[in-house]
Specification:
423 residues; alpha/beta; homodimer
Amino acid sequence: MVIIGAGFAGVAVAQGLRAQNNLQITLVDRRNYHLFQPLLYQVAMAGLNPGDISTPLRRLFSGQRNLAILMAEVDRLDLPGRRIHYDNQWLSYDFLVVCCGSKHHYFGNEEWEEFSPGLKTIEQATEIRRRVLLALELAEKESDLQRRQELLTFVVVGGGPTGVEVAGAIAEMVRHTLVGDYKLADLRSTRVVLVEGGDRVLAAFPTSLSAKAEQFLRDLGVEVKVNSRAANPNSFSITINDEPLRTKTIIWAAGVRPSRLTDEFSCPKDRSGRIIVNSDFSVPGFESVFVIGDQAAFPTNDGQFLPALAPVAIQQGRHLARNISMELKGLPRKPFNYFDKGIMATVGRTRAVVSVGPVQLSGWIAWLIWVFVHIMYLVQVKNRVFVFLQWAWAYFSFGQGARLIVHKTWKFYSGEKIPIQGK
Amino acid sequence: MVIIGAGFAGVAVAQGLRAQNNLQITLVDRRNYHLFQPLLYQVAMAGLNPGDISTPLRRLFSGQRNLAILMAEVDRLDLPGRRIHYDNQWLSYDFLVVCCGSKHHYFGNEEWEEFSPGLKTIEQATEIRRRVLLALELAEKESDLQRRQELLTFVVVGGGPTGVEVAGAIAEMVRHTLVGDYKLADLRSTRVVLVEGGDRVLAAFPTSLSAKAEQFLRDLGVEVKVNSRAANPNSFSITINDEPLRTKTIIWAAGVRPSRLTDEFSCPKDRSGRIIVNSDFSVPGFESVFVIGDQAAFPTNDGQFLPALAPVAIQQGRHLARNISMELKGLPRKPFNYFDKGIMATVGRTRAVVSVGPVQLSGWIAWLIWVFVHIMYLVQVKNRVFVFLQWAWAYFSFGQGARLIVHKTWKFYSGEKIPIQGK
């Protein structure tokens, strides 16, 4: 059995099958670690270290005898031939689970990425951290007031949970936490602009919570621009509703699409390109090939598809593991029903919005729930109670721990300059 | 007053002058953080996160009113004109303190760095971590036994404290901590080769401690090659005593030279290129220009120069701060006397060597002293008792926390592959 992808879905499947001694599982990932993506924005905002939200796969599965880890990038699937391709070789499988997640979507303008990185990987998070902190240092050195203001202007594209969290975190960090640390640049004049194409932020939430979140953002000093189109990010500006806004730092949180390996499936896909799966996650025509997590569009009873969320991926992974275990015993598969635990997003460090069925919470109490849920999951993955302390500390000393501007290249020999004059 | 460099020396001067309200200090560094370099090898060996051993300068000095931080790279000095040059502009000073430290020395073969990085910066440490961990992953995938052995061969060039610590840490991590995490590659067959040009490792220590350290290294499975010359590192081998050794991972710890700004001084230098300073750290001919730390050669009474060590830099910084404070009161400068607290180096996680005057310690008790001293200094710089816990935890869970293979570029968009097939 082969699992491609060690995100929430893949880890859940693999762990759920730990007791199946007759099964030989190969978990393939191009990374050697599992990433706790919901807190990735805190790495970008210098609150956490990359290691705080990542677990080496070999450590996570060090006790699991029936599982081998393969660090490789799968580039082709041969579904009729039941084999996957990586490193110029083929690997055969009996069961295949594909859960490679999603990546940022520039809607055909991939050249925008250079000027407005997304936030999906550790590398992107440290790059965003580098750009934000460097902008502050350059603003401190800049005597020209207009150029200083450009350096103190941050644009976040996309009003989903990631965009809202990033915009709130930048505003809080720059306008509040760090404001006393800079003497020449007045960080209170920082502009943080959140651009959303729809008519409200957090479109997946009830409208009342969108309004709350928008108010929280404004309280932190974020300018929220809804019904606005962002385009053509470059090294000194971005166009918002056909008007250029001068800025040196742009973060892209505007859209996702399923991972590249999705192209290997010729079956029907949903609007966002996800593979439409059967009620047991199998792919039409291949009953031993399963797709789960962000890459799958799982139909619900009301004719919709489940959203691309961590809880969906985890529950799908666990359910699939149970199904495969039953199948190994000769029992039939059971269809999956998602147990909706609700959705949540945080704005800054003391406010959040939570929507659970008919219950809608916002503010301080929602934030406590957000913290509790995230710590619970993180402790589970990091598998250590101590992490809770470490994390709590890092969280409450936000903006003070990991404020390192680490450069893109490791070579600084004889006379070579560190590129701190610009990006 | 201008201080160039925020290492141990620069931070000590700046902190020592915190009560001098009439002084306007500008602390210039091309980094935005102070690095606790003695533990950098633990970042390279995946034991600690970069943030664990770094303190943002703005946080370190957030309470100090008389100090401004300037993130910039100084590229010229105009000593007669009393000004420094950075970012195409000049900054004038009354007092100047130069303490930019040292960097690796490839003895005119700078092209070697690509294949055998040194260990002086966070970027280099994460690059070494990437190479070591990636070699293990590639070995796990490699079916050709000879190529697998090449991937499991690690060469450390230089038998000083850094080389000894790195070689010991690799051997311990790979041959002991991680050995159970890989199923196909037998990590017990890992070769760690330490190459030293002189006739013993840790040449600055008494010969008996060199012998002890060498024994500790051999106990961990390190092959120690003394009286050996390493040359021509490339992507698949290094030449040791004219014999090529096939390896994919080489780490350079063979020599240091003072930082590039040293070239701006035309006064006499010692054999390793350090600026020979007066007994008050001033430079001949410029009584308000001081050089301290790794960049300075400070003459001792026996005609030698003080070694390039953290304790020397810290004591020099504190002494210089006292001298400048006295001068501001119209009192004369006092000459510096180094209080030698001894030297130490660790080999693996439970053994060390310590030399304090006539006292020589080795083994477990020396290691406890090593731990105590490093925690004391680290807590001082990180300025938080909590760090002690975090650090102790990270230390005792060595090899388990920060095992991330983070890539050199942050851009992974549409179809671009992560370079995990090779370096």
